[in-house]
Amino acid sequence: MNYINNITEAIGHTPLLKLNRVGKDVGANVFVKLEHLNPSGSYKDRMALSMIEAAERGDTWNHKQLKPGGTVIEASAGNTAPAVSMVCAAKGYDAHIYLYRYQMEDPKNARLQITQAFGPTVKISSEPSVYMTEEQITELSKTSPDLLHVLSAKMDCQVEEDTIENSVWLDQIYNPYNAAGQVSLGEEIYEQLDGQVDAIGCSASSGASLFGMIKGLANHDVRPGVIFGVEPAGSEKYFDFEGDMAKYGEFTVSDDKTKIAEAIGLTKWVTEAPIVKTLLDAGYPDRIYCVSDEEARAMANRLCQEEGIFCGMSSGANVAVALRIAKELGPGKNVVTTIVDRRDRYLSETPYEKYVV
User: Fold this and answer.
1) Which are the contacts of 184, defined by CB distance < 8 A and separation ≥ 6?
2) What confidence category does residue 290 fall into, taking pLDDT thresholds of 50, 70 and 90?
3) How far apart are CA 171 and CA 274, in angstroms?
4) Helix (H) or strand (E) holding 261
5) E-strand spans in 29-146?
6) So what's the architecture of 7-42+182-355 in CATH?
7) Euclidean distance between the first and the last CA atom of the chain, given in angstroms as a whole number
């Protein structure tokens, strides 16, 4: 007999697919790690399991230990919400998920519905005015209006953790087990390509997947010639874009944002260095490319219709950049990136028809 006892055992060990149609005649071989085949439908399953297992050991920033029947708290507007909810359902924990107000006002939002299917307690983050003064809101609105809701959600999580007995707030951006959970991604790629990796990369995002790829390969003394990051063309998080390539900008979780976080009592926001800053300080990635929404959607459509990969625009952006690098490197080289998640979580976007050729 060959079976598993818990759905969490199905996390990871995803196939590596060579793109034979989309990647035809582009030069190097282009491979995609099919992370959308994880149980909740995204690469976030790896880090959700890693962070929750760390909490079970008491390996958390405040040394709180998650015990049987406990509550896991997290804020998310994306793939973390269903990933954490799925792992909690499988392990018998209550999940309390705060969704960012600015992204979750539509009750038909696909990510919201997918998250709710796993049975968590879902809440919309508080209005910023609950935690911040009018002056603070005005100041932060000048540069990062969305961050107002992110900070509010984080405060909601912190308040819940302080209030609910036997509860742990994961806080993915600052949790070292986010990145640690992705190291298996690089380890698997090493095994699947016998270490023959010439270029590797994916969306920058929180930096966890990129870190995991680099670390997993480094564990086998493999350092690809090109390590690339991908960011939306309109991103202002970490980089200043000039044409297709990017130069590093200042890391933005600092100065006025940190001061406001401290002022409202969000202590964890300023106690640990985020993964992206760690990567940048270490000189990774070598290159960062910007990809327009139009290019990302077009490539996602091609992947769906030419390769049968049911993916969204983040995956489209990754592959669009991988193809550029494949043309540069030429035949005989291997370029690797990730299929981040399934397209179903984007079906409520307006207008959805942009996804359909």
Assistant:
1) 12, 46, 212, 216
2) confident
3) 11
4) helix 255-263
5) 29-34, 71-75, 94-99, 121-124
6) 3-Layer(aba) Sandwich (3.40)
7) 44
Per-residue pLDDT for 239 more than 60?
no
* Contact between residue 335 and residue 225 where contact means Cβ atoms under 8 Å apart: no
Structure tokens at 36: 């959308």
Q: Which residue has the higher pLDDT, 256 or 319?
A: 319
Taking the C-alpha atoms of residue 166 and residue 72, their distance in angstroms, rounded to an integer, is 9
pTM: 0.88
Name the residue with tokens 């130069």: 247
- The Cβ of residue 240 has, within 10 Å, a number of other Cβ atoms equal to 11
pLDDT higher than threshold 50 for residue 326: yes
Query: What sign does the dihedral 251-254-260-262 (CA atoms) show?
Result: positive
Location of each CATH 3.40.50.1100 domain in the chain: 7-42+182-355, 44-175
Q: Residues near 162 by Cβ (< 8 Å), separated by ≥ 6? A: none
219: number of CA atoms within 13 Å, CB side? 16
- The residue type found at 287 is R
Nearest to 200 by CA among 120, 117, 98, 318: 318
- CATH number, domain 44-175, options 3.30.830.10, 3.40.50.1100, 3.40.50.720, 3.40.50.920: 3.40.50.1100
> Over the stretch 58-76, which tens digit does the pLDDT of each residue have?
998 888 999 999 999 999 8
What value does the mean pLDDT take over residues 48-55?
98
CB 41 within 8 A of CB 341: yes
Cβ contact 316:297 at 8 Å: yes
Query: What is the band of 38 on the pLDDT scale with cuts at 50, 70, 90?
Result: very high
Structure tokens at 218: 């480094």
The C-alpha angle with vertex 241 and arms to 235 and 243, in degrees rounded to 5, equals: 125
How is the chain split among helix, strand and coil, in percent rounded to 5?
45, 15, 40
